Amino acid sequence: MFVVMVTVRTFLVMSLQTVLLALSSKVGFTVDETKVSPNLLKRIGELQTMRGFLDQTGVEVNKLARTCRESQRLVLIPGLIGLFVVLLGVTGTPLILPGVLCLGLSGVLYYTGARPVQLSLARKKRELESITTAFNGAVDRTSKDVAKELSKPTGWPAKTE
Predict the structure, then answer these.
(1) Which alpha helices (DSSP H) does 90-114 contain, by range?
(2) Quick check: 44 and 17 in contact, CB under 8 A?
């Protein structure tokens, strides 16, 4: 339980740093979270949540891509063996049936294992694109407001820890 809490806290701190870095690169100067208004601080928190979803979806896409490659390999092996045995079966009829069975097994493995993973991977990639587009748009909007707010004196007292 302790390890999970530490990991989540580290993940949130890392995504906050990533968000502040993205904002800083957009506005052209280092953004200090202690010098922004509570409203912008709330929006930075929302960006942090979006970045967490973005990172989580990226991890899921990577995991699905690895699973997809493994399942394609499992489909390819009986398919190639079946094709080879069928070609050998042209010279000797008894080998055609095992070759066709291997090709059939390859087809069954594709439609029950590889194809669903490919569809899930395509869906997650579209989701990742959508989240990335939304995050980038939110960073653009927030960076304009941060630049506007920090370029003029606001009267907000700096936070002290």
Answers:
(1) 96-109
(2) no
Degrees to nearest 5, angle at CA 80 with 78 and 81: 60
Per-residue model confidence (pLDDT) at position 1: 44
Q: For the segment 83-109, what is each residue's pLDDT rounded down to a tens digit?
A: 888 888 877 778 888 888 998 999 999
Asked whether the predicted pLDDT for residue 28 surpasses 90, the reply is: no
Is 22 within 8 Å of 114 (Cβ atoms)? no
* Cβ-Cβ contacts under 8 Å for 19 (sequence gap 6 or more): 44, 47, 48, 51, 139
Secondary structure of residue 148 in the 3-state scheme: helix
Residue 122: Cβ within 10 Å count: 12
The pTM assigned to this predicted structure is 0.72
The amino acid at 160: T
Measured on CA atoms in the order 40, 43, 45, 51, is the torsion positive or negative? negative
DSSP 94: G
pLDDT attached to residue 153: 60
Length of the chain: 161
